[in-house]
């Protein structure tokens, strides 16, 4: 065994050297041949890792204990490096060297998939920066220093005399810097352009264009550097894309990878017609997220919803499986009870419903709004009922509403705490847990239709729904349920998963 | 000499005279060319003009100083704005492949506008200013100038009176011109202490530790506060303004004061916070952020007041009087004054050497007006910068080995 690995080392010397270190800047692309299946498998695994990072980042404070624990277990499950000073002889399974190689290669493959548009690039950079932050944080101080020097972040340290002279200023510039910090730690002199976040928030001492950073804070600098380098690299990669795309083996895979980032968008209607209009009232109480429950209630009470509400709720209903005919009937019957007569409805409102289903105008099939979209765009004004109640309602009103919906007082205060911390999706998740009598929702909420599907699953109606979901959705679920009790199932799931992944990718190749 | 003679209706007559005989084109070009260190720097710079009847034209650019002069004399713009240096000549931007025409560099700029202080000044409001509230500008300039030089290390700062109710700062260092959007916004945020709109009562909140930048700024504010706020603005003189001040104080302090008890440590910085809220500079971050942002050019005329946007010599900051800044009608009038004997004899001497005559006549022209001292100061500013260009050019020619 040892002989063959030594032979490997002779072939790719610098790369081998690279893999001796737990963390890298991805400055050099891998220079070896790999099989197509390794190409696919590596890329898909890294994508899963990045999606986990995205979800964890929404649900937990970055680098908090829960965050790091979950990220560590996911990295382990996907065979990515997670131990900065792992000893190869002890572990079974892939060696640390192999994991680092996989990390290196998979990063560069995803660059190809994610360099094409501004959105893709932004997403990829964000997740890679978060991943890097986590890994850098796990390094020992000595390894951090080593990393800095190896990567040409040759920021100078200031002399002991200068430190003493600046001591007061340094201490007064940052909450985290005490007299002891100044005495014990090295301070680096960094050009202010490399430490914008610290400058912007005035958390650092600035003199003649340089900021003075204690060793403990050097990570911010490193992250900025990583971000900048990656951003430049992606721009360059985009230019060489035509050459890559001309390889027919790669193009379909790369396309698949970049579309997967969008995640489940509930645009493809499944279970069309499985829900009858009579069920909606009861479903709204049981399985609708608060925003949709609120919209439904307003609609029933006022027999009307304004445009923002019609879009948000109408698309949601489409997502849960209402057909166009059902939707028309639903809105029409409600509006007629109000001030709108049948004629006016057919002339004005019916058009916009057909539009939602892609049957008018440029025939775009509009996708139901994700939580991000509901929270961040088009805030409601007077007379509107759309938006995210956790984000847009006054806390008092929200409290009343939750009381009205019979949420327990302790549950309400938990929710209000989360709202105060601006964790709107977590608040909604808590609402899910309380209304379904569960401890842990075991999914990361990012879409109202996801809420509906998960709720239906819990309430027992969802075997059909489960089978029809896409791969990314399934993998997210699996990783979330992979807790201590799920260990024996995990292995079986994993191989089943791999078979399914390959199956789906195969079909892609065939279609192409 | 009185500037009350200015009437905006006269602009169509005054502007041609201004651009033909008074506008300091050679200094202006010298500035924007930055010593020719970077190729096409001047040629790729965007200018925008506001012409008569509010016609606004963007993406103007010029190849040489002469072309700039000719165009301006032809168009007689009411207002001139300076934009960024682009990747291509702005006047050809339509011929460039979409997405490739980009703003690359520009001076770092700041705009301090008196209307942003309306909630804390009682003497004037909106576009009006007076000598009492002008102190706010003096304070702003002291604080920002110090911070930009000492904290950020910038050296070439041009402060300009906007012509009506504020001042602009142009940071011309090479490092400043190359700053990204993120960097500009970070600098502006670092310099911002007053936060909040109409709904926010308390706009300045200080917490431990007090950053050295805040300490330095407070030192300036404290120097001016007694005379400015307590005397001139008289913030404690009327019930209405006293109430405004009291609204900024923490409740427990009020209780403590009223009951005569000793001062508590909670809300310990409320005095400083109040002073800062009344005096600390308020800048518009959006002006500073954008690389492609267009800002009024120095030596542009303010159409409403007629005043020239003149560079300010900070050595004379304490005595700067915005109402003494020359108007276009004033300087045009000064041109028409009878020439002195000395000037007449120089005229005859010059007829012999026609080539430089026009140039020299023009120089003598502005020297005869109140514009002179401002152009002189601008010259000094350029001279200082020029020394850094020489260094750059030497470096470049060394690298290229052209001796």
UniProtKB/TrEMBL annotation, chain A:
Any one cellular-component term (Gene Ontology): alpha DNA polymerase:primase complex
Keywords: 4Fe-4S, DNA replication, DNA-binding, Iron, Iron-sulfur, Metal-binding, Primosome
Domain of life: Eukaryota
The keyword DNA-binding is annotated on this UniProt entry: yes
Biased composition (Low complexity): 486-497
Molecular function terms, GO-annotated: 4 iron, 4 sulfur cluster binding; DNA binding; metal ion binding
One Gene Ontology biological process: DNA replication initiation
Region: Disordered, residue numbers: 470-497
CDD domains: PriL_PriS_Eukaryotic (cd07322)
Protein family (similarity comment): Belongs to the eukaryotic-type primase large subunit family.
PANTHER family noted in UniProt: DNA PRIMASE LARGE SUBUNIT
Assembly and interaction partners: Heterodimer of a catalytic subunit PRIM1 and a regulatory subunit PRIM2, also known as the DNA primase complex. Interacts via (C-terminus) with PRIM1. Component of the alpha DNA polymerase complex (also known as the alpha DNA polymerase-primase complex) consisting of four subunits: the catalytic subunit POLA1, the regulatory subunit POLA2, and the primase complex subunits PRIM1 and PRIM2 respectively. Within the complex, POLA1 directly interacts with PRIM2.
Protein name in the entry: DNA primase large subunit
UniProtKB/TrEMBL annotation, chain B:
Alphabetized GO MF terms: DNA-directed RNA polymerase activity; metal ion binding
Family from the record: Belongs to the eukaryotic-type primase small subunit family.
InterPro entries for the chain: DNA_primase_S (IPR002755), DNA_primase_ssu_euk/arc (IPR014052)
First-level EC class: transferase
Domain of life: Eukaryota
One term under GO cellular component: alpha DNA polymerase:primase complex
Catalytic activity: ssDNA + n NTP = ssDNA/pppN(pN)n-1 hybrid + (n-1) diphosphate
The EC number(s) this enzyme carries: 2.7.7.-
Stored Pfam families: DNA_primase_S
GO biological process: one example: DNA replication, synthesis of primer
Region feature (Disordered): 335-362
Name of the protein: DNA primase
Sorted UniProt keywords: DNA replication, DNA-directed RNA polymerase, Metal-binding, Nucleotidyltransferase, Primosome, Transcription, Transferase
